Amino acid sequence: MNIKRLVLKFRLFISSAFPQKEKKERGFIYEFDDERFKKLTPDEQGVQVQKNWNKYMKDK
Amino acid sequence: MLLFSRRKKLIIGGCSYTDNYARAQKMKEFPIWGELLAEKLDMDLINLGKCGFGNKAIYHTITDEILNKKDIGLVVAMWSEVQRVSFFTDKKPEKLKNGSVYHEIWDCFHPERIVLDADWHDKFFTPPTKNTKKAGIKYDISVALRNKFLDDIKSGVKESLGYMYALQSICELNNIPHLQIQGCQPLMGKGESLQSVQYKEFCNLIIESPYIDKINKTFIGWPIDPRIGGYSIDSKLEDKHRFSPEDTHPNDMGHKYISEVLYDEYKKISS
To answer: Which residue from B113, B223, B227 is facing A15, i.e. has the nearest CB?
Structure first.
């Protein structure tokens, strides 16, 4: 193993001791994951999803 | 204007961080980093970036262009998530309802995201109604790839590093000034515990790859992850540089910042 690899391995080991910035996916998978959406009933959530889908298809 | 211009060309490629994301999302538009950089460098811009592009599509679109063009002043590749898959589809141009013409020859997607998104929508479809997200070729391919573990981090990293080194080599061979940088985060965002395990694997794959010593200073932020002293442009963006916590793409300030980073690096390689 060359020196560079050794240094980077050590650096990676040390970094595990420090918390890293979390970046949870918030794209379209969690697009309805907001408080207002959560408060809706499942039926109303379904309507919102359908509206979103229709809009997507229309735009496309 | 490009046809008769005597100015050198700035050729850029990438995903939504390079494409005009605001225009694609029908949001208020602003100058994107490619336009800002072209202005600073007094070059004509050829922007090959497309929202959703994977690294294979980014590599091929840039390579095809640089081998076909003369008077290239600078090439910039801004890489995407390593696990996105790209398929070349020689589709015919399609006229959309709004009158515009859609011509996409690359189909790219992230298999894990496609499957998770479809699964998440299950709750809105009561049998016998079928989940519309679980239909179509993208979903079928994504399920097949995931079932056979063909979309894992290892293969994504191996493939992407190969494209990065290949692009560097092609540019060097043709004496074309070039810069590379990781744009968005290289892996799909997850909760902290899973994320740290996956990024550790990502870092180890880079360290143990044959490219660790081969990628040179034209790759800004190499070796990509802050845990091993690198960075992506996304990791440098602050909250003020993003649209919102939900949509973390760079906003107008973000694009301005990216153009400044690239301009500073260009000055270093050209001096």
So the answer is: B227
The vertex-B236 CA angle with B234 and B241, nearest 5°, equals 75
Q: What is the dihedral of CA B216, B262, B173, B230, to 10 degrees?
A: 20
Backbone phi and psi for residue B180, each to the nearest 5 degrees, phi listed first: -130, 155
SS (H, E, C) B12-60: EECCCCCCCHHHHCCCCCCCCHHHHHHHHHCCEEEECCCCCCCHHHHHH
* Interface size between A and B, measured as CB pairs under 8 A: 81
Pick from B240, B190, B212: which is nearest to A20 by CA? B190
Distance from CA of B7 to the nearest CA of A (A): 36
pLDDT given at position B189: 79
Q: Give the Cα separation of B266 and B246 in Å (integer).
A: 32
Looking at the predicted structure, is the pLDDT value of residue B218 above 90?
A: yes
Give contacts of A29 with chain B, Cβ < 8 Å. 113, 116-117, 120
pLDDT digits (tens, 9 = 90+) for B76-130: 999 999 999 999 987 777 666 666 666 678 999 999 999 988 887 887 788 888 8
State the pLDDT confidence band at A27, using cuts at 50, 70 and 90: very low
The whole-model pTM stands at: 0.86
- Which residues in chain B have their CB less than 8 angstroms from residue A31's CB? 246
Closest to B188 measured CA to CA, from B259, B262, B84: B84
d(CA B75, CA B72): 7
Judge contact between B44 and B57, C-beta under 8 A. no
Are B72 and B41 contacting, i.e. CB atoms less than 8 angstroms apart? no
Percentage of residues of chain B with pLDDT beyond 90:
75
Residues B228/B203, Cβ–Cβ less than 8 Å: yes
